[in-house]
Amino acid sequence: MSKRTEVDHLCPCGSGLVLDDCCAAYINGSLPAPSAKALMRSRYTAYVQRNESYILSTWHRSTRPETASMNTDPPSKWLSLKIIACENDTVEFIARYKVQGKAYRLHEKSRFVYEDGQWYYIDGEIKS
Ligand SMILES: [Zn+2]
């Protein structure tokens, strides 16, 4: 367990925990995400880290795309994640990002499914 509290080591998902005590264990495969919310957070962190393989491996096979198109041109810089509401298998969130210095927000309600001991992302409804 890490005791570091420097901002640089905080998990990008905004939990306030250091990365090693938060999403890292799910992303490196040592633990399965225990809830849809935890999976959502770790997928956001994987977007920040441009970890396409984690994004795809946590995407349910019924809706999984060929690529996660993270290397968009121009590139997007993820700024923050705020979870607004969550139920057992849905998570509603606002993610903020910048493209070429201009700020955007993504407000989405994502659906997840628990299958074979693991949570998977299915799809999302854009809210506004
Ligand atoms: Zn995290």
Task: Tell me what you see in this structure.
A hairpin with a 2-residue loop joins strand 3 and strand 4 (118-126). This protein has a single domain, classed as Nuclear Transport Factor 2, Chain: A (Roll), CATH 3.10.450.50. The chain contains 3 helices and 4 strands, in the order H-H-H-E-E-E-E. It has helices at residues 24-27, 36-48, 52-57; strands at residues 76-86, 90-99, 102-115, 118-126. With 128 residues, it is α+β, with helices and mostly antiparallel strands. The chain has a 4-stranded antiparallel β-sheet with strand order 1-2-3-4, with helices on one face. The longest helix has 13 residues, at 36-48. Residues 11, 13, 15, 22-23, 41, 45 line the site of zinc ion.
Would you identify the CATH architecture?
A: Roll
Number of helices: 3
- Tell me what portion of residues adopts beta-strand conformation: 25-35%
Q: What is the number of domains?
A: 1
Strand count: 4
Name of the CATH class = Alpha Beta
The largest beta-sheet arranges its strands as: 1-2-3-4
Helicity level: 10-25%
Overview features:
128 residues; Nuclear Transport Factor 2, Chain: A
Describe the protein's topology.
Elements: H1 24-27, H2 36-48, H3 52-57, E1 76-86, E2 90-99, E3 102-115, E4 118-126
Antiparallel strand pairs: 1-2, 2-3, 3-4
This protein binds zinc ion.
Short characterization:
This protein is of the alpha+beta class and 128 residues long. The protein contains three helices and four strands; from the N terminus they run αααββββ. Helix content is 18%, strand content 34%.
